[in-house]
Design the sequence.
């Protein structure tokens, strides 16, 4: 009788372990599956629903300024390939030290397609590489 109870306990523990591992793999794959899109691509997204996006671009010097209330910044994010295409970004939170006009940044947030603004939840600057060759 004791062997049967012990076997059932092992089967239950193994089942819980496998279900937990499967959940972690599934949530890890779906949560980080957003890829970078350019500003020009974001401007063509359908306007039917808000969708999470991760955008890459350059900070334009015009339109850059601190938020009126609290810590944060608003700026224009220009497309990497077509500087005429830009999107207004509002970010509430601590601004990275490397953030400046002309800096390459990555923003994450919800974007309603067809609009011209994004409220970012994350703002990251591309780390300036000290390993690049100096141009002569």
Sequence:
């Amino acid at each position: 009788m004791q062997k049967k109870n012990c076997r059932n306990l092992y089967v239950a523990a193994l089942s819980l372990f496998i279900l937990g591992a499967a959940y972690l793999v599934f949530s890890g794959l779906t949560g980080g599956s957003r890829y970078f899109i350019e500003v020009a691509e974001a401007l063509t997204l359908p306007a039917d629903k808000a969708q999470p996006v991760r955008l890459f671009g350059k900070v334009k010097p015009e339109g850059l300024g601190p938020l009126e209330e609290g810590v944060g910044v608003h700026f224009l994010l220009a497309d990497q390939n077509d500087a005429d295409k830009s999107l207004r970004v509002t970010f509430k939170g601590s601004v990275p030290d490397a953030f400046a006009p002309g800096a390459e940044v990555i923003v994450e947030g919800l974007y309603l397609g067809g609009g011209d603004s994004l409220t970012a939840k994350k703002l990251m600057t591309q780390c300036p590489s000290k390993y690049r060759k100096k141009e002569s």
In short: The beta strands are 36-38, 50-59, 65-66, 72-78, 86-92, 104-112, 117-125. The mean pLDDT is 84.
